[in-house]
Specification:
- There is one protein chain.
- By secondary structure, the chain is α+β, with helices and mostly antiparallel strands.
- The chain folds into three domains: about 100 residues, Serine Threonine Protein Phosphatase 5, Tetratricopeptide repeat (Alpha Horseshoe), CATH 1.25.40; about 90 residues, Immunoglobulin-like (Sandwich), CATH 2.60.40; about 100 residues.
- Helix 2 packs antiparallel against helix 3 and helix 5 runs antiparallel to helix 6.
- The relative contact order is 0.10.
Length: about 350
Amino acid sequence: MTSLGMRRRVGDAGLGVVMLMCAALLGAGAVPAHAEPQAPPPAQAQPPTEAPVRPWHEGVSEERRQKAEQLFQEGRELHRNLLLADARAKYEQALSYWEHPELRLYLGRVLMRIGLPLLAHENLEKALRWGSGALARELEAEARAALGELLAHELAMIEIRCDEPGAAVLLDAKPWFVGPGVERRLVLPGEHIVTARKAGHYVVVKPVVALAGKRASGMVRLSADATLTERRWKAAWVPWSVVGAGAALGLLGGGLTWQASAHHEAAERKLQRDCGPKCPANDGSEYDQSILENRIAIGSFIAGGAALIAGGALVYMNRPRTYRTEDRGDVEVEIAPAVSSGAAGLSTRISF
């Protein structure tokens, strides 16, 4: 009985294993031969990226843009009808609402037609200041070609260098820059006046002729306007030494005159004392000595007087003379080809 029970339990266990295997086979048959991968979950929608804001759009309200657009269209209509002065006014009014490179280009076109090349150049430069891509390719090429045309045929350049610190340089009587430094400016062809002034220096005024398509470059030199005092001879004692020598000779002559007079009087007293009815023989040495001394005194007076006159003349000639320094200021100008449109500007400055 025990063995049956054991067999039954073994048989039941075998049956369970067989049933499990069948179930596994049925499950395997239900699975497809090539299982497809599961589709990834749908990606979350990304918000659209905004285009970068152009510099001339920053800080400009929609209302101002619309107003500028309206004025721009009005100006274009006037431009088409060749009412150039009115079109210019509309473009400038539009620019007061919105600084836009295309507006600058259209204004530059009108100014070229009116005959204002300096203003046209300024506006074309401003139209290109935002760099490549600010204007459409054909508009940018037009602006650059117009700049080259203006520089080659309608504008000239003046470049001035001044190394004098604190010197004020003027162009056509208008303040330009203060030295030291170099500055260049586009001008209309023709004669222009360069002026440089500084306290204590001569004023330099120089006409400069500027030719179309050329650069007139110059160097300003100022000279000091000073009052100097000098003598003919630096050794001021020389004329006075001649005067002193003349005075010494005069004193010597006076002393000799006094001594000659004393000797002459002594000779006369001796003669009166020793002479009776007859005068004894006398060698006359004292009398002769007085005459010699008198002659030497007269010579001393003459030489002393001449020395005094000469010394006085020398003192007069060596008196201090006051005069102003010579004006040597100037502007040296040379003409050279104008720089390219990329390097030109209405006014650029290099300081040192």
